[in-house]
Amino acid sequence: MTSFQIIHIEETDSTNRWVKSVPLQGRGIVGWAEYQTKGRGQGTNTWESERGMNLTFSVRFCPEGVKANAQFIISMAISIALTKTLQVMHPVTIKWPNDIYVGDKKICGILIENVLAGGGIKDCVIGIGLNVNQTLFVSDAPNPTSMKLESGKEHDRREVLETLLENFEEVLTNWDEGSIRTEYRQQLYRKEGLFTYRDEKGQFSASVVDVEDDGHLLLKDSEGVLRRYAFKEVTFVI
């Protein structure tokens, strides 16, 4: 059983904003909404979610001992917890930096907001949109999928949420940055082989070399040249 306090709400504009307004208790709090009127993805993106069909929620907690310049480790940790939760979906991988994919389709997105203080992280909010039982997507998102589409059956959303939180707590309790980074890299989408990418100069073929501790993606193109990217500087062509 999870020690996070789960608060179930019918509707809010954003669960990330909502959990920031609630006092922290215990290990942390989770705001789970049936519907978000302004659900956010990365940057200016929005997150499509049919009311009552998926999991749209935010986790707020206080990480201990995570330095500001190493904050990407939190993204790695929650990504690992998600892949463990979804391991019955196959193949489930982490598309850099923290989208969760089944095959070439996106099943989950993550948005992390950290409050920094004294060189460390004072407060962390992780917003998660996980497609559970939705089967029809009407937005222009190119490649969505859901647990139901992949498994052919409906899933108990509360059970999925609690399993995810238990997996995340296990990572937090047994915190080992080296192991987290190793496991994250092992589960990367496109971790082997040449694939197509696009940056500001155009399209190219490359293989994944590494994800650095600060979150930068290292690619080696077909000419053998190393390319280093921050988030939003390169696009996966699928």
Please give a structural write-up.
By secondary structure, the chain is an alpha+beta fold. A seven-stranded mixed sheet has the order 1-2-3-7-6-5-4. It has a five-stranded antiparallel sheet with strand order 11-10-9-8-12, with no helix packed on it. A hairpin with a 2-residue loop joins strand 5 and strand 6. Helix 2 crosses helix 4. The longest helix is centred in the last third of the chain and has 17 residues. The chain starts with a strand and ends with a strand.
Features:
238 residues, seven-stranded mixed beta sheet, 12 strands, globular
How would you summarize what this structure contains?
By secondary structure, this protein is of the alpha+beta class.
Helix vs. strand class: alpha+beta
- What strand order characterises the main sheet? 1-2-3-7-6-5-4
CA-based shape: globular
**Sheet bearing the most strands, described?**
7 strands, mixed
Oligomer type: single chain
Number of helices: 5
How confident is the prediction overall: mean pLDDT?
A: 94
What series of H and E elements makes up the topology? Answer: EHEEHEEEEHHHEEEEE
Sheet-strand content, in percent, reads: 25-35%
Distance between the termini: 38 Å
Low-confidence stretches: none
CA gyration radius, whole angstroms: 18 Å
